[in-house]
Amino acid sequence: MNAANSDRIFQALEKFRIEIPSWGFANTGTRFGKFIQAAAATTTEEKFSDAGQVHALTGACPTVALHVLWDFTDGIQSIGEVQTYAKRYGVNPGSINPNLFQDQEYKYGSFGNPDPSIRARALRHTRDSIEIARGLQTRDISLWFADGSNYPGTANIRQRKLWFEELLKTVHADLSTSQRLLVEYKPFEPAFYHTDIADWGMALLLARFAGPQAKVLVDTGHHYAAQNIEQIVAWLLSEEMLGGFHFNDRRYADDDLTLGSIDPYQVFRIFHEILFYEWETGKQADIAYMIDQSHNLKGKIEAMLQTVCMAQELFAKACLVNHAELAEAQKSCDLVKAESFLQDAFATDVRPAIQEWRRSKGVQVNPLEAFRQSGYLERITQQRSARNSQSVSSYA
Ligand code: RM4
Ligand code: MN
Ligand code: MN
Prior knowledge:
Blueprint: H1 3-15, E1 20-21, E2 29-30, E3 33-34, H2 44-58, E4 63-67, H3 68-71, H4 79-89, E5 92-97, H5 116-136, E6 140-143, E7 148-149, H6 157-172, E8 180-184, E9 194-195, H7 200-210, E10 214-219, H8 229-238, E11 242-247, H9 264-281, E12 288-291, H10 300-318, H11 323-331, H12 335-347, H13 351-361, H14 367-374, H15 376-389
Parallel strand pairs: 1-4, 4-5, 6-8, 8-10, 10-11, 11-12
Antiparallel strand pairs: 2-3, 7-9
Helix pairs in contact: 1-10, 2-4, 2-10, 2-14, 6-7, 8-9, 9-10, 10-14, 11-12
The protein binds beta-L-rhamnopyranose and manganese (II) ion (2 copies).
One manganese (II) ion is lined by residues 144, 184, 219, 246, 292.
């Protein structure tokens, strides 16, 4: 690789930070049961400890996304505790994720629930979440709604849209100037007939309605199989409405598989659209890169390290596209040439340059290998296995 290219990779990696989710270290499962792992984290402190490991080994994950119900057992009162863990384990709180789907009350929805007292409860919880984010001085409140219905005719779709508009506007008014609301969409699951925020267009309309600090969050797993995700990304960039990503890969639906395990070229194309936008406009896209993966079978910390390394690799590949030449080829409709700029960048082995960057940062050249050598996994397995073995895996 020539010096110019390794320079580009250095610069790209310098600004590339990716947030890891606290829930990625906990036991998770499918609707048929959970597979318990002896080393899984069950407390907020353990999640911070594991996230701290990922950051220490990669130097690329300084923040951890938190789920209000799962990580703030005493709500707002837990802020101090979370701050202690952040300091202790060297990783800061990141996006705050309200939980509007787990409580029994939300069986028929949260913001879209026909019962005004349940909508009020959902509003209260979202406001508390904004308060928590403010207390922790974190910027993004990330909203995902399970709201929807399972059978035709059972929900007033238009009315629910109005309730969403009203409540999103109300919570937007609560934001401090530095905070943002991220609105996530998902076509189905847990609702199997209609989902209130099913796609990027609905999320975009609602975010616009809510106010200027609301943006769209693209979870890569939340699309129909044939959808062109990078086009959605390009449109959201063009509208200045792309707030962040939840990265994961999928084969069928919202599978939460490891990023790039099925289709790395797609992630590359997404990064390419972002970098091309930045080159063309001279603006820095203000995007929160986050991972949203729950690994049922793989070791959780290993899978997270694998994901971060893959994200860095694909981002580094995307930064090798020569934008000026690509723009020329596009203008003159030189199709093969234009396409080959992407293909050549994607085919480049960027790993040696990434290793150089890691060396220069004083982090592990091979984070996964270093983790295996570190003894951390053996230690937490010993500490946590007794508690985890008591975990319930069956839903019966
Ligand atoms: C959803 C979505 C959300 C996540 C929940 C637990 O599928 O991806 O971002 O918070 O799962
Ligand atoms: Mn998500
Ligand atoms: Mn999901």
